[in-house]
């Protein structure tokens, strides 16, 4: 196991100076030291500072200002270094490109500023990815979902890495190709999405690869010390700790201060309660951003201030003011200590794909990842000003867009004061910030409560079954008085293990006709095949099946709700729209046993089908919903992005009805389709396929839905797709006036607006406008609240959460 030392101190506390003191002590004691710093400017500043500490120390520097080929120059020097104890200064960018350090065991290594331990490559390459992927192969898994990318041969990537600098294609792939080949980095892809990109199941349009820095890059050195602010909140610390690295805090380090408690006169301004993002910034022609610029321009009209913004902002927002733009990565910059005000307008959030990868690898939640990436940059930016100088007692002011970041900064500056800087957003309403009411102290308590509740429900139900009863809710209330329920009969296990569903005469019925019991999965699959061989039947002539066992609550007039469910066994999924083929679906779940059969409206050109997946155990409603959602998410990850095809979008649709992912739904039993060309029936059970094991698919989550939750506060797309919005409006106006279609098409309009990236307020506004094109506008207006309530449900949210 590797062990590295670290110097963890606030920005401006003198970590670099403390590192230079360690350099001097090591050289004086006869050692050689390599110092890696983030920039040439900081190297030059450190040269001067070290000279003041010890004028006689021998110093070597290798960087772009004193040599043309930096990496080759450093390698050559390390092959034949100055023979006496001394220090070598190089940049971190040059160090990580060194493939080998001769006699590294004789060198001490000091890293000034925490290195970036991750890199992401996400490019739309539906067709031209072969220029890179043809040279690659897949290696080992780091998690069940992510697999390593490796060169097919030792020199497979040389042509890409050494390609012409004037070729934009070579430039596009050069960095990621270098990382894939480098022994210092490991690069991973979502295995299913990558296979789809290669065309083995389906096409995805984006090549997404994520690289992480391997701690072995430091393994051979005599000692390693990393100096950086907020070290334990960094990606490098979180990642390498997970990988087994032991970090030891350096002892005997003298810093100017250990925290920011000495800062007495800092004001932290904020404007919005929602987490700031590019998506929010760009809404309504960047209204939020423009108002932030306006408010800060007025606030700092007569004083100098530093500011930071994303690269796509440009240099114009604060034109005419005493505004100085900070570089994207200002670490170590200390030339602005005379400026008291800083405005931070950058949105540096990780992309959803990167956040998911880091969460899986590190094992932390999204908020921790966001802090390690976005808020670390906030902290580094505001610390470029006079906050670095503990002797500066002037009033200081920093601005961050959102309250959560302001409160995080307040946790670092205990004496700071938060102040709201209002924005004039007119009629624009920001999406509500999601919240969640906690009902358990921790995850263990939540799990224990869920299991206890489940156990009690099943035991009460089974005691009645042992007496030969099929109970309703009133009988459950009386079951304590039953004199025979203490006898444990074999029938208990037989019923649960043989249960395959409840049979219903129609969707209008309140009670099931009977319980379907079959001895094994094979016998149930045989029954499905027999039913499939029946001639075509109209819906009113067919029966339906539910995978759940219900106990009606007559006193509350509740019959087929989740509250009535005692348990469910097996899954049914409906594929109603053009999309993934049965064999492709089965290939995405190679270990699961399943039966796929056509629905009555299936045709050759649009194969509609139903999937049945058996399970090894019974499930509660929350388990059923979580697992079906995960199945749909697997399709999305594999490149099937939509429930149904979207015009002018190359991404594929999976075709599954995402409104029927809950355990209360009913599904028609198999029969022949109306159109004989749409026939399909197949049971996938060979090659080791087995029933789904719920405990392997279900991640226990809080059952209580978030309060004041608006799913549209999540970011389904970078921008609202105005073309999609217009097509949705046009489709509604063309179809909504047809007889008996108003209700259905009005709901479809809302769903398509969600796909287009609209948040709840926008959807409500557009629905109100479009209601006037209906045959009965008043009915459509009255329908809007129920539509919005439906869209807040998880099963509807699945339909657009990844778009």
List keywords for this structure.
about 800 residues; alpha/beta; 7-stranded parallel beta sheet; 6-stranded parallel beta sheet; 26 helices; globular; disordered C terminus
Can you tell me about this structure?
Helix 3 links the parallel strand 3 and strand 4. The protein is of the alpha/beta class and 803 residues long. The protein has a seven-stranded parallel β-sheet, with helices on both faces. The protein has a six-stranded parallel β-sheet with strand order 15-14-16-17-13-18, covered by helices on one side. A five-stranded antiparallel β-sheet has the order 6-10-9-8-7, with helices on both faces. It is globular and about 100 Å long. Helix 1 crosses helix 2.
Q: Radius of gyration from the CA trace? A: 31 Å
Main beta sheet strand tally, sense and closure: 7 strands, parallel
Terminal-residue CA separation: 41 Å
> So what's the oligomer here?
single chain
Count of helical regions = 26
* SS strand fraction: 15-25%
Structural class by secondary-structure content: alpha/beta
Shape: globular
Task: Please count the beta strands (DSSP E, at least 2 residues each).
Answer: 30
Strand order of the largest sheet: 3-4-2-5-11-1-12
Helicity range? 25-40%
Low-confidence stretches: 464-493, 700-718, 795-803
Q: For the residues shown, what is the average pLDDT? A: 84
How are the SSEs ordered, and which strands pair?
Blueprint: E1 3-8, H1 15-28, E2 32-37, H2 40-53, E3 59-61, H3 70-79, E4 87-91, H4 92-96, E5 107-112, E6 118-124, H5 130-133, E7 136-141, E8 146-151, H6 158-161, H7 168-181, E9 185-190, H8 191-197, E10 206-213, E11 223-228, H9 235-242, E12 246-249, E13 266-270, H10 278-281, H11 283-299, E14 305-308, E15 323-325, E16 341-344, H12 352-362, H13 366-382, E17 396-399, H14 403-412, E18 417-420, H15 443-466, H16 473-478, H17 491-498, E19 499-504, E20 514-517, H18 521-532, E21 544-546, E22 548-550, E23 565-568, E24 571-575, H19 582-588, E25 594-598, E26 609-613, H20 621-637, E27 640-642, E28 652-653, E29 667-668, E30 681-684, H21 694-697, H22 722-735, H23 742-755, H24 760-770, H25 777-791, H26 794-797
Parallel strand pairs: 1-11, 1-12, 2-4, 2-5, 3-4, 5-11, 13-17, 13-18, 14-15, 14-16, 16-17, 27-28
Antiparallel strand pairs: 6-10, 7-8, 8-9, 9-10, 19-20, 19-21, 21-29, 22-23, 24-26, 25-26, 25-30
């Amino acid at each position: 196991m590797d062990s590295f030392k670290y110097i963890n101190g606030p920005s401006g506390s003198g970590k670099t100076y403390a590192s230079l003191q360690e350099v001097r002590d090591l050289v004086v004691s006869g050692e050689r030291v390599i110092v890696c710093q983030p920039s040439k400017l900081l190297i030059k500043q450190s040269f001067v500072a070290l000279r003041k500490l010890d004028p006689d120390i021998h110093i070597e520097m290798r960087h772009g200002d004193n040599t043309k080929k930096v990496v080759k120059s450093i390698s050559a020097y390390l092959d034949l270094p100055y023979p006496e104890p001394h220090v070598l200064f190089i940049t971190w960018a040059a160090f990580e490109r060194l493939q080998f350090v001769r006699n590294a065991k004789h060198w001490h290594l000091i890293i000034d500023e925490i290195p970036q331990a991750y890199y992401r490559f996400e490019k739309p390459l539906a067709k031209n990815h072969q220029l890179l992927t043809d040279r690659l192969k897949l290696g080992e898994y780091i998690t069940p979902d992510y697999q390593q990318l490796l060169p097919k041969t030792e020199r497979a990537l040389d042509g890409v890495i050494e390609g012409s600098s004037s070729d934009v294609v070579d430039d596009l792939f050069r960095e990621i190709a270098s990382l894939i080949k480098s022994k210092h980095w490991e690069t991973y892809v979502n295995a299913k999405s990558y296979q789809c990109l290669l065309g083995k199941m389906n096409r995805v349009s984006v090549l997404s690869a994520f690289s992480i820095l391997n701690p072995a890059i430091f393994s051979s050195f005599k000692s390693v010390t990393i100096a950086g602010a907020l070290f334990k909140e960094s990606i490098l610390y979180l990642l390498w700790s997970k990988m087994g690295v032991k970090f030891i805090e350096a002892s005997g380090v003298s810093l100017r201060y250990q925290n920011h408690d000495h800062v007495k006169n800092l004001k932290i301004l904020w404007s919005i309660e929602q987490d700031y993002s590019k998506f929010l910034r760009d809404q309504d022609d960047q209204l939020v951003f423009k108002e932030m610029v306006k408010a800060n321009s007025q606030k700092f009209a007569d004083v100098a201030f530093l500011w930071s913004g994303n690269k796509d902002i440009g240099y114009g927002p604060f034109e005419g003011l005493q505004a100085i733009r900070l570089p994207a990565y200002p670490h170590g910059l200390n030339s602005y200590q005379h400026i008291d005000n800083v405005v931070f307008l950058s949105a540096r959030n990780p992309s959803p794909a990167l956040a998911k990868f880091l969460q899986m690898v590190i094992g932390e939640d999204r908020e921790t990842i966001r802090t390690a990436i976005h808020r670390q940059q906030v902290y580094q930016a505001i610390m470029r000003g006079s906050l670095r100088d503990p002797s500066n007692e002037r009033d200081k002011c920093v601005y961050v867009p959102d309250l959560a970041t302001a409160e995080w900064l307040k946790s670092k500056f205990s004496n700071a004061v938060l102040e709201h800087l209002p924005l004039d957003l007119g009629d624009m309403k920001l999406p509500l910030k999601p919240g969640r009411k906690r009902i358990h102290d921790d995850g263990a308590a939540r799990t224990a409560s869920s299991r206890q509740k489940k156990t009690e429900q099943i035991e009460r139900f089974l005691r009645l079954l042992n007496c030969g009863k099929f109970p309703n809710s009133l009988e459950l209330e009386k079951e304590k008085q039953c004199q025979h329920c203490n006898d444990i009969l074999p029938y208990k296990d037989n019923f649960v293990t043989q249960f395959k569903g409840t049979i219903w005469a129609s969707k209008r019925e309140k009670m099931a006709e009977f319980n379907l019991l079959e001895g094994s999965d094979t016998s149930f699959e045989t029954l499905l095949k027999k039913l499939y061989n029946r001639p075509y039947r109209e819906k009113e002539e067919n029966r339906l099946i539910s995978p759940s066992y219900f106990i009606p609550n007559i006193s509350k007039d509740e019959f087929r709700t989740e509250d009535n469910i005692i348990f469910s066994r097996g899954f049914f999924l409906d594929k109603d729209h053009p999309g993934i083929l049965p064999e492709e679906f089965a290939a995405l779940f190679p270990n699961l046993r399943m039966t796929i059969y056509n629905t009555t409206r299936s045709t050759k050109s649009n194969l509609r089908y139903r999937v049945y997946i058996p399970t090894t155990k019974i499930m509660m409603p929350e388990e059923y919903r979580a697992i079906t959602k995960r199945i749909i998410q697997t399709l999305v990850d594999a490149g099937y992005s939509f429930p149904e095809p979207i015009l002018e979008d190359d991404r594929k649709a999976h075709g599954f009805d995402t409104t029927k992912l809950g355990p209360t739904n009913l599904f028609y039993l198999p029969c022949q389709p109306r159109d004989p060309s749409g026939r399909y029936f197949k049971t996938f059970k060979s090659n080791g396929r087995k029933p789904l094991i719920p405990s392997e698919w279900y991640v226990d989550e809080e059952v209580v839905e978030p309060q004041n939750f608006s799913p549209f506060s999540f970011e389904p797309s970078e921008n609202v797709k105005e073309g999609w919005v217009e097509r949705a409006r046009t489709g509604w106006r063309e179809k909504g006036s047809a007889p008996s279609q108003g209700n259905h098409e009005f709901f479809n309009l809302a769903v398509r607006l969600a796909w287009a990236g609209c948040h709840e307020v926008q959807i409500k506004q557009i629905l109100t406008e479009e209601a006037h094109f209906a045959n009965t506008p008043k009915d459509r207006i009255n329908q809007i609240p129920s539509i919005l309530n439906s869209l807040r449900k998880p099963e509807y949210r699945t339909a657009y959460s990844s778009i």
